[in-house]
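User: Can you recover a sequence for this backbone? Please restate the input before giving your answer.

Assistant: Of course. Working from this structure:
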């Protein structure tokens, strides 16, 4: 094959069609997404361990609030950037910028004081959103709807495997080499550099070429909240999804506090968090491949939605009486592991009976505003209950709040069950 000097190649139906039909494009994207999640699962253990070392896990809610506020400002300017330049160029520029900043953070991280650790934590959390959103935005621009249905499952699996590989690699590097927690920033920078090369190659050999889509950006900018308000069904979906985001900070707070108590030494703590992420990724893959199809086939979509709040309730109740690292880890897996597997699949099935434009409007509001609003609310709730009130709750006692939210969550799912049946019957 002869390469061209033009990037990206606008000819989608010419000499590169054979490559596309053979799945070469999907293979590139699979590897790309694998590397993105691998890099993130090197950075997340490092950012959390360094923050705990600098300020302690009890200060994490403040970092989550700062992250959410910073994210609002960043996303505003980021969307302006995307509007002015092609997604292809933005991805390449982002990769170079991130790699450079990670190297810079590596040199700054040893400075005294907590400022760099806090900034790095916020940077990694923003980075997690940007890289994943950017990847799927680029992917959406080069696949038709029909092609997406055929290949998205395969591409998404790359991310699940990347979670296993990234966490496992970080744990191995910390435990069995001379590398320390700050050095993970350099390994992640190298990984993102490889992503840059792969993305550039896609454009250079003609695997990146945009197709015509509905103007989603315009749809998202108009009436996201209005679309929710006009549909009881969509309001119930939003409530189910957003209550999960309200619970998540509490679970994370309990988990990381038990990690801090169990692993006071930085490198041991980083290795544990890395290994934990790897195990969680492995469990998510197993659930996605085995349990999700079986539950959806024999029990239905709503049953898939119920598993997460039921499991969180179970382990939160256990944590109330036995606030150990094992129980905290099990609750964390129930939260994130199930969210990345069966809950995500069940959520997407809920949208099938709805008009595509309305779906996009509703999802845009939930993803861009709802998730951040409820995560910030969860952080404020933790601070209110543990630090701001005259009579504060202990770490284990936060489980009373979690189980209460889960009870409301389950109740809304049962109401949603009747609405789901009604909508499906109306759609035939």
């Amino acid at each position: 094959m002869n390469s061209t000097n033009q990037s990206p190649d606008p000819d989608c139906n010419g000499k590169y069609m054979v490559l596309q039909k053979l799945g070469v494009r999907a293979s590139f994207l699979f590897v790309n997404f694998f590397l993105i999640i691998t890099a993130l699962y090197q950075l997340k253990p490092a950012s959390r361990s360094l923050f705990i070392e600098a300020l302690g896990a009890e200060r994490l809610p403040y970092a989550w609030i700062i992250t959410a506020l910073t994210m609002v400002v960043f996303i505003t300017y980021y969307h302006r950037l995307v509007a002015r330049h092609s997604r292809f160029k933005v991805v390449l520029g982002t990769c170079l910028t991130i790699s450079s900043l990670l190297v810079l953070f590596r040199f700054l991280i040893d400075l005294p004081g907590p400022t760099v650790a806090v900034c790095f934590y916020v940077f990694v959390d923003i980075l997690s959103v940007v890289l994943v959103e950017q990847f799927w935005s680029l992917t959406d621009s080069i696949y038709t709807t029909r092609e997406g249905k055929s290949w998205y499952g395969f591409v998404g699996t790359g991310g699940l495997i990347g979670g296993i590989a990234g966490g496992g690699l970080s744990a191995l590097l910390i435990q069995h080499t001379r590398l320390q927690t700050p050095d993970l920033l350099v390994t992640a920078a190298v990984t993102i550099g490889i992503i840059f090369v792969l993305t550039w190659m896609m454009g250079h050999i003609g695997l990146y070429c945009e197709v015509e889509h509905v103007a989603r950006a315009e749809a998202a900018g108009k009436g996201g909240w209005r679309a929710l308000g006009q549909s009881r069904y969509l309001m119930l979906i939003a409530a189910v999804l957003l209550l999960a985001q309200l619970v998540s900070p509490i679970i994370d707070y309990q988990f990381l506090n038990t990690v801090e108590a169990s692993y006071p030494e930085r490198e041991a703590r980083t290795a544990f968090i890395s290994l934990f992420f790897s195990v969680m990724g492995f469990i998510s893959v197993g659930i996605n491949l085995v349990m999700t199809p079986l539950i959806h086939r024999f029990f239905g979509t709503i049953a898939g939605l119920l598993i997460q709040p039921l499991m969180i309730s179970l382990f939160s109740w256990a944590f109330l009486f036995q606030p150990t690292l094992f129980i905290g880890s099990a609750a964390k897996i129930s939260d994130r592991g199930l969210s990345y597997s069966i809950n995500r699949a069940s959520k997407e099935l809920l949208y099938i009976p709805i008009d595509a434009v309305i779906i996009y409007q509703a999802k845009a509001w939930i993803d861009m505003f709802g998730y951040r609003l409820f995560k910030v609310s969860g952080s404020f709730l933790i601070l209110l209950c543990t630090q701001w009130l005259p009579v504060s709750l202990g770490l284990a006692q936060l489980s009373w709040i979690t189980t209460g939210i889960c009870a409301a969550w389950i109740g809304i799912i049962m109401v949603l069950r009747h609405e789901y049946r009604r909508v499906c019957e109306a759609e035939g």
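That completes the design. The chain has 16 helices and no strands.
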